[in-house]
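tl;dr need the bound structure. longer version: we got a ligand (guanosine-5'-triphosphate) that a collaborator sent over and nobodys looked at where it sits. i said id run it. heres the input, straight from their email, havent touched it
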Amino acid sequence: MGNLQIQWYPGHMTKTRRYIEKNIGLVDLVIEVADARVVKSSQNPDFDRLLGNKKRLTVLTKKDLADESVNKKWEAYFKEKGRTVLFLNSTAGQGVSDVIPAVRKILKESLDRAAAKGMTKTIRLMICGVPNSGKSTLINALCHRKAAEAQDRPGVTRGGQWVTLQKDVELLDTPGILWNKFEDPQVGIHLALTGAVKDDVVDKESLALELIEILQGKYPEALEARYKIELYPGEPPLEVYEDICRKRGFLLRGNDFDYTRCAAVLLDEFRGGKIGRISLEEPDAGV
Ligand SMILES: Nc1nc2c(ncn2[C@@H]2O[C@H](COP(=O)(O)OP(=O)(O)OP(=O)(O)O)[C@@H](O)[C@H]2O)c(=O)[nH]1
Ligand SMILES: [Mg+2]
């Protein structure tokens, strides 16, 4: 498992890195957006260097698609580390109203200092995260209007955009960025499965096979229930793949399996939460 090598670091991400570096000095805090289903893989390791010692608030989006029991484990994990992390379902607006109060709490000292001098400080924020993690959706939920373009594919936001969230809060949207090389191939697989990597650069049949293998291990009942199949211990993922093709009637002339169609459906249904609420990563299980 995890042999599929995925890489996606197009030129516009280098441009975004420079854009972040150029603008980081203008902001008081960075809202770092990661995906609750892949908490580890969706935190960009480059951010530590890129954001320097800028104050940060981590938000985990798509909590509605992630496994509730795993969300709880992550909550406990971050609490123990003394880190403020918010879990959101931005499309339904859940948790969104906690974001700005959490920002104000982190910036309390400097806000109090300004207030003591009779000034109102404008809070400037930057939102950063891997592609498709829900940055623009969160911005729209925060300001109750469609201020930023949001779509279910990576690489939607191009260039930066300042948006006024409240009269004293401004936020800069940025395009999603990945990093140069996924040291652990599993990271690339998890990011591709959750839609952070452009589908065109990935072999979708291989990715679907990886998904099947992960689900066989972590969520066998969900896989069985969704595709009305029965798994047996040690079943090769390819057999499961073909079983799903058979059940769904994804066959070509001559009774060949239509792997391509099946892969598209599997990935789509996983991403849309139709196989169930699934988390690919847990706090101590390794990535
Ligand atoms: N279920 C669910 N879907 C979400 C959530 N947040 C965002 N989405 C969906 O995720 C997809 C990507 O959202 P965007 O806001 O465009 O993501 P982005 O991070 O701005 O993406 P780039 O600009 O491409 O980097 C959209 O289809 C959103 O509707 C969430 O909390 N729950
Ligand atoms: Mg965006």
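gonna send this back to them w/ a short note. Residues 135-136, 150, 156-157 surround magnesium ion (ligand 2) (CB under 6 Å).
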